[in-house]
Write a structure and sequence with these properties.
The structure is a single chain. This protein has 101 residues and is mostly helical. It contains 2 helices and 2 strands, in the order ββαα. The protein has one domain.
């Protein structure tokens, strides 16, 4: 009797050819545009350039999927959210700081 492995990674993103759905759609749009370019301007140099462009795009997209830190420049949300005013100066140098006696 055949045994089936339980799929536990149900929350991971769907991948097609190693790319998420949105990046795969971008890749397919590039391929379709390349085919149109080849059809309307048929020459050997255009075919080679289009193939190199699509191959480079695929390598770049797959590299960016494997290393998501490359496109992450800054944090979107702060670590804490507070209604207190944030003063960068220490209390003794801050003119707005009032000590309570």
């Amino acid at each position: 009797m055949k045994k089936f492995k339980i799929y536990k990674n149900i929350r991971k993103r769907a991948m097609i050819m190693g790319l998420p759905i949105s990046l795969f759609g971008l890749m397919m749009a590039s391929v379709i545009g390349s085919l149109m370019l080849i059809i309307f301007s048929f020459s050997l140099s255009v075919i080679i350039l289009v193939l190199l462009f699509n191959f480079g795009l695929y390598l770049g997209l797959s590299y960016s999927v494997k290393n998501p830190n490359l496109l992450h420049y800054q944090k979107v949300f702060p670590d804490t959210i507070s209604n207190k005013k944030a003063f960068l100066l220490p209390p003794e140098e801050n003119p707005n700081h009032h000590e309570e006696n």
